[in-house]
């Protein structure tokens, strides 16, 4: 494996429904450490499936996928890998409704050996970074869409992941708020040198990335 | 926020559903607690009757289903007295008569000279005379209920008896009844030369086990000795029945409560499918998700245990206030509450496991896709 590559995928295949639906049909992809890559394609093209494979939310049928030096086909404890390496940002913020902003950001840290006060300290830093220090005690329903997505970014950063995976992060926001979230992500990538992989179907959003990968019918288009 | 605080917080997200589940389980727990308090009271009271203060053990007819049906020929009094180590023997005959509006007024016939072997304390007036004089002493509770005192009369089996004294034993059943001469009770019951039980007092240097063993050996066919509540439980099917019923109700509470908890937790997991997907995505292990849901289920049932215990105690107070205080002498032992919480915990574990297991096994991508 090339040292500079954080993601190496070879001939990755994945089908659903007992082989009736082919989601990924031989994907070959390399992503360098610190790169900002956007994955673009129409709905049903397999782009989200690809993102889920990189984030170890799902297992491939055949092929090979190595992320941060972990062979995800062979690896048994994928939750440990996700906890250590991956930060997810979803289209819908997916915050836990009965927990405060602060508590939502602490959620990923339970799998780390951290005390409650260490968790709190880390969450406070992250919320300051996303500019929500004044809304710590608010519930997700008391926030605007953009604010919720900023909480989700803080949550994704909680365990200092090497890769941030964002699935349509601006998909449910208006264009102005969306632009703000994208700036935040780009800033994160530039200042912290985090690898950022973003799925979108919006060409304008995709163009912010260093490189754009087009997926169609489960294959990467050159 | 600690993981523990998170577990405590979660069950109260859907307040109505959790409250309903808690009430459902709490009713079962309340039944266990109330029944336990009554049963313990009954046992304490029975033990009191057996020990009868000055006696070391009692003797009843062998092979009777309930102590009350025990019948012993009076001649055994003399025979038992002959046994080595026996100091004194007194025969008592128990009967139940309707007195005014109490259909379960307990009469105990005993030789007044032997009252000391029973743990009776005559607090007012004096003991009744021996023989067929129509005299009686009544318990403190009976005196209050009947509003009668020394010098008044009481009708037993259509005959007037004069109250010569008021006594107190501390046992509700006895304090709610009366003591009178053995001859009088035998006449009322038409049971000449018969007693219900024998109270035995042994010599100071004798050993209860040795003496009871000798009696069992010699008269084991007709008589059985009762030196403890355990001895009694082995012959008295009434106590056995109550114990069995109490366990059956506990079991029923576990089954019904368990189904309620399974239902509540499955609904909760179902509604939070997407959230569970997120927890998996941020790196939570299956085991942590399992502990969270199981923990929530236990929190729910322990709260139900607390509510149920309070309901049980209140229920007993209501029964007492409604005039059941002549039948129920509540005993609040730690045992009853430990059992109630053990049942609550069992319900939480059994009812929570399946939903927790299901949640922990959800595939993350499917959970995240769930709308």
Structure characterization notes:
The complex is a heterodimer of chains A (222) and B (371). Chain A is α/β, with parallel strands linked by helices. Chain A has a single domain (35-56, 77-221), classed as 3-Layer(aba) Sandwich (Rossmann fold). Helices cover 32% and strands 27% of the residues of chain A. In chain A, the strands form 2 sheets. Chain A has a 6-stranded mixed β-sheet, with helices on both faces. Chain A starts with a strand and ends with a strand. Helices cover 55% and strands 18% of the residues of chain B. Chain B has helices at 3-9, 15-51, 75-82, 140-146, 172-175, 182-189, 208-219, 229-235, 237-271, 273-281, 286-321, 334-360, 364-369; strands at residues 57-61, 72-73, 86-99, 102-109, 121-125, 135-139, 153-156, 159-168, 178-180, 194-195, 197-202, 223-226. In chain B, strands 1, 3, 4, 5, 6, 7, 8, 9, 11 and 12 form a 10-stranded mixed β-sheet that branches. In chain B, strands 2-10 form a two-stranded antiparallel ribbon. The longest helix of chain B has 37 residues, at 15-51. Chain B is elongated. The model of chain B has no long low-confidence stretch (mean pLDDT 87). The chains are: A alpha/beta (222), B alpha+beta (371). At the A-B interface, α2 and α4 of A face α1, α10 and α13 of B.
Briefly characterize the structure.
Chain A has 7 helices and 10 strands.
- Helical segment tally of chain A? 7
CATH architecture call of chain A = 3-Layer(aba) Sandwich
What is the share of helical residues of chain B? 40-55%
In the CATH scheme, the class of chain A would be: Alpha Beta
User: Proportion of β residues of chain A?
Assistant: 25-35%
Structural class call of chain A reads alpha/beta
Write the layout of secondary structure elements.
The complex is a heterodimer of chains A (222) and B (371).
Chain A: E1 5-16, E2 21-32, E3 36-40, H1 47-54, E4 62-67, E5 70-71, H2 78-85, E6 86-89, H3 101-106, H4 116-129, H5 145-156, E7 163-167, H6 175-192, E8 195-200, H7 203-206, E9 211-216, E10 219-221
Parallel strand pairs in A: 3-8, 3-9, 6-7, 7-8
Antiparallel strand pairs in A: 1-2, 1-4, 4-5, 9-10
Helix pairs in contact in A: 4-5, 5-6
Chain B: H1 3-9, H2 15-51, E1 57-61, E2 72-73, H3 75-82, E3 86-99, E4 102-109, E5 121-125, E6 135-139, H4 140-146, E7 153-156, E8 159-168, H5 172-175, E9 178-180, H6 182-189, E10 194-195, E11 197-202, H7 208-219, E12 223-226, H8 229-235, H9 237-271, H10 273-281, H11 286-321, H12 334-360, H13 364-369
Parallel strand pairs in B: 4-9, 6-8
Antiparallel strand pairs in B: 1-11, 1-12, 2-10, 3-4, 3-11, 5-8, 6-9, 7-8
Helix pairs in contact in B: 1-11, 2-9, 2-11, 2-12, 8-9, 9-12, 11-12
